[in-house]
UniProtKB/TrEMBL annotation:
Name of a matching Pfam family: GntR
Xref: SMART domains: FCD, HTH_GNTR
Organism of provenance: Lysinibacillus agricola
Protein name: FadR family transcriptional regulator
TM stretches of this protein: none
Length: 241
């Protein structure tokens, strides 16, 4: 069955979000005028105004009377939520592939860290874990603490190639963490379970139990992949309601 044709305003909404993801529009940047957008997309100015209202409601832009429309800056959480939704739709294949790579990389790093971690390594991992607990209700700070936890485990593996690879891919890692953490924060019980999963991994590494650390890290990332799938299916369901 052919897909229904998108309404003109929805085409504009989708394209502006795509421009943002591609870096063509930056936070705080002013959008073209209604007349320019109408000409660019070959639609009426009424469709442009409807699209701008939708983007404003979603928290992506801010309309300033007499000044124009501007992309909101990252401190607006609604923008981050919208981008997470867009990431799921437009980059889900990349995120799944990233999780496959993380499973291969981080499981081995957890194994090596349990054998090679110094007291300084363990202190850094422990501090990242403490930070995760303190900021567990703040999505963006939680992402950074979560990323720090995993980076410090890679550092503790004392494998320079693993570290270089991990650092190169850190931006994509943040995408996977952002998507899954937003899903988990909807349920306070899952938020605490996230902390507990990381704590178990840390304790296994600190105890030098290589096999346990490896198994727990594999279980953790497998769970992330499962939740990402559930999140995607839920999002698709909402789109069809």
């Amino acid at each position: 069955m052919p897909q229904p044709k998108k309404k003109a305003y929805q085409v504009i909404v989708d394209q502006i979000r795509e421009y943002f993801l591609n870096g063509e529009l930056q936070p705080g940047e002013k959008l073209p005028t209604e007349r320019e957008l109408a000409s660019r997309f070959n639609v009426s100015r009424t469709s442009v105004r409807e699209a701008l209202r939708k983007l404003e409601i979603k928290g992506i832009i801010e309309i300033k009377q007499g000044s124009g429309s501007f992309i909101k800056t990252p401190e607006y959480h609604s923008l981050g939520e919208e981008l997470s939704s867009t990431i799921i739709k437009t980059e889900k294949k990349l995120i799944y592939e990233m999780l496959e790579l993380r499973q291969a990389l981080e499981v081995e790093c957890a194994f090596l860290a349990s054998r090679r971690a110094t007291s300084e390594d363990l202190e850094r991992i422990g501090k990242a874990l403490e930070m995760m607990d303190r900021v567990k209700n703040d999505v963006e700070l939680g992402i950074q603490a979560d990323l720090s936890f995993h980076i410090n485990i890679v550092l503790a593996s004392h494998n320079s190639i693993f570290l270089q690879l991990f650092q190169t891919l850190s931006e994509h890692m943040q995408d996977t963490i952002r998507v899954t953490r937003r899903q988990r924060l909807k349920d306070p019980e899952r938020t605490q379970e996230t902390i507990d999963e990381h704590k178990e991994i840390f304790l296994a590494i600190a105890a030098g139990d290589a096999n346990q650390a490896k198994q727990l890290m594999e279980k953790h990332i497998t769970q992330i992949r499962r939740e990402l799938t559930e999140s995607l299916l839920s999002h698709i369901g909402e789109q069809h309601d």
